[in-house]
Amino acid sequence: MSARGSLVLRGIRKSFAGTEVLRGIDLEVAPGEVVCLLGPSGSGKSTLLRCVNHLERVDAGFVLVDGILVGYEPRGGRLHESSEKDTARLRRRMGMVFQHFNLFTHLSALDNVMLGPVRVLGRDAADAERDARALLARVGLKDHAGKRPGRLSGGQQQRVAIARALAMDPSVLLFDEPTSALDPELVGEVLAVMRDLAGQGMTMVVVTHEIGFAQEVADTAVFMDGGVIVESGPARRVLSSPSSARTAEFLAHVL
Ligand code: ADP
Ligand code: MG
């Protein structure tokens, strides 16, 4: 068995209407590692995250989380497609945080966080509520549990979304531009929560243009362009002295 929080991608390919958007992605993430995924718009970052938690089905390759394989496994000289059961098992272990929060607007912050544990995991409501309140406190929203998203700032809503993802006790957390939709003054509070999670050993893959955050928090930086990984390595090295001209050019534009 691999340790909880390990993630391996091998040969991931994905096309839409004949256009190949992911052209063979290989990546290994160790338990507790934080990976920042960078790259220009349209390079395939969101599609890759969606393939990792199987919101999209891969065309080739596989994803391995905690030893659970989803996709196409080469075995005995042939490819074996994983089962629906394994897809469901793998998805349970992934948490995802989106740019636009995707909270249920008619539910309170507390109910947003409790919903998955109660409905999907079948947790007892009183236990789920106790844990959800603790998670809201952990993201600095102890006094906002009863509020609906519309009464919260964007930064507070994104922190509810992070608490909701954590409530499912994921092995790996995926973030797709979690601060891109926020007013600049609200970015810091969300990054602070993410920094805490990283410090507590959560395995994270973060698509972000926040280079300062990446430099400070990420172990590894991965630069994608045109559906391939152009460069990856220790975050400080890649972000300060990239070896690829394409990475350097991209960084010059976002910095
Ligand atoms: P990024 O997140 O790096 O900006 P995306 O993964 O969103 O890139 O998109 C990569 C490419 O795939 C883009 O050209 C986009 O238009 C295309 N694409 C993404 N999702 C779909 C889809 N569901 N159907 C068709 N094309 C898509
Ligand atoms: Mg995207």
TrEMBL record:
GO cellular component, one term: plasma membrane
InterPro entries cross-referenced by the UniProt entry: AAA+_ATPase (IPR003593), ABC_ATPase_HisP-typ (IPR030679), ABC_transporter-like_ATP-bd (IPR003439), ABC_transporter-like_CS (IPR017871), MetN_ABC_transporter-like (IPR050086), P-loop_NTPase (IPR027417)
Membrane topology, record value: Peripheral membrane protein
Entry GO MF terms: ATP binding; ATP hydrolysis activity; ATPase-coupled polar amino acid-transporter activity
Broad class of where this protein is predominantly found: membrane
A Pfam match: ABC_tran
Cellular compartment(s): Cell membrane
Keywords linked to the UniProt accession: ATP-binding, Cell membrane, Membrane, Nucleotide-binding, Transport
Record field: transmembrane: none
Catalytic reaction annotation: a polar amino acid(out) + ATP + H2O = a polar amino acid(in) + ADP + phosphate + H(+)
Keyword Hydrolase in record: no
Entry EC no(s): 7.4.2.1
Taxonomy, superkingdom: Bacteria
Uppermost EC category: translocase
ABC transporter domain sequence ranges: 7-251
Protein name: ABC-type polar-amino-acid transporter
Organism: Actinomadura litoris
